[in-house]
Predict the structure.
Amino acid sequence: MKIKEVPYDYGSPLLNNYLNDFGRMGSLFEHNPHSAESFVERYDLVMREYNNDRHELVRILKEYNESLGCGAETTANIERLKESGTVVVVTGQQAGVLTGPLYTIYKAVTAIQLARESASRLGKNVVPMFWVAAEDHDYAEVDHLNLLNKEQELIRLCLNYTPAGKYPVGHIPVTEAVYDLIEELRVSTNPSEWKDEIISFLTQSARQSDNLADWFAAVMTWLFNGSGLVMINPLNIGLRRLWSDTFVSFLQQADRVNEKLLSGMEKVRQLGAVPQVEKEQENINMFILVDGERSALLKKGDRYEVRGGNGAWSLKELLEAAKSNPEIFSPNVILRPVAQDALLPTIAYIAGPGEISYYALYREIYPLFGQTMPIIFPRANVTILERATAKYMEKYGIRFNDGTDGIEKKLSEYLEKQDSVGIDSLFETYTRDLTKSFEEFIEKISINDSELQKHGQESLKKLMHQMSYLERKARQSHRKSCDVAVKRYRNIENQLFPKRSMQERVFNIFPYLFKYGPDFIKNIIEIPLIENTTHKLLYPGTKTKE
């Protein structure tokens, strides 16, 4: 598989500087992810700060991963966590149906590669881990996948099931809608050597899963079998009990957390960037389950409640509940990283572009809980460039960095070159001459009747409308004569920038697995994706590096 590195502007000053000029944003973060010394420093900090029950953590992780059908490499990694010197590289994502967008896969690959590199660099055990965001209740974010069908049309497959409320994904059962979606995937994609085997696995794993989060974890475990990747589900009751004291601290420190968050937002603004979140003053950055639904806790005076008035508590009542019933609480996007790093000996977190912007706000929050922010390592940014697409990009002189606007511009230039009639100049000249001639005609006929001037202008307007219609039809005829090339331009755009977005944010991995086989991910893991922060183009079926 060939790899080509290309620079790319992500449109965010904060992100571009984080990737390419860390010094400009370094004050917002604890460690420089591009420095080898940062890993040594962070390792020493983890050794001083981490004090969770490793043996109980190992017991929970082993039980969960074995239930998912993990391989021997994952079990061995979990056992290594018993040793006080073992640390983890962790990443995570919402439990999207069939793993969701491609960047979920690239996050896991980055974690695996960074864990290997860090272990070699430090001479220590470093375990790659994937955090299944089973607590998340934003169902619309996880209930679908996007792909190109047999006709190369961009389609969206969606679960035909809607929960009755804001339930965590880890509480939403696997229903018949899941099997219907798997069948839609099968019908929408071309047959291949591996497709039946993969479809069979997806169906079987769904039957063996109680909820959508566990199905996601089972699929990820299968995809990354042999890599040593460890899955962790924060809804596990054992993990919630390990978190009890952390949740108590979150509730006690809620006001100070918001103060530090506002301070972080101001520092981001001072550096010329826009904060990723806007603080809602009443929100204390914790959720509570009420009748099974996940609702944000709001502070109203000395009382705490959720929107809609479905319950109200004193701080004392919440603290007692956090000690006795921690499974009803969960942190929001602000405190989730702190909760994660209280639970795990985290040396680095693999973050996507949006997450990096979130983490820019958190540096001052960590010390409130006796922690420091881990290394925030950018996930690999990848675009898969298949052979036919690469061939036509070369034919038409299209570069990846042209983006959607550049592709559209080059299509217009191509059509203009193929225009033997000269539609632009022909219509421009004739319209100008016709307008001048008609206006002179109107002037002559309206000498004795000024009303004819008005009627003449109305007639001219109608005539120009007909000319515009005729020009549009002429252009359509010309484009039709170039139909093959136009389709190729559109296919290039759909492959690289579906929905005018990055491929990794839209497409799903399974059409690629059908085409290139289950080892496709294993092959990606062996490609050096984290040597630098450039965008990577992957060419399936080739083996050299540019």
Observations:
- The first strand starts at residue 2 and ends at 6.
- The chain has 21 helices and 15 strands.
- The first helix runs from residue 13 to 20.
- The chain has a mean pLDDT of 91.
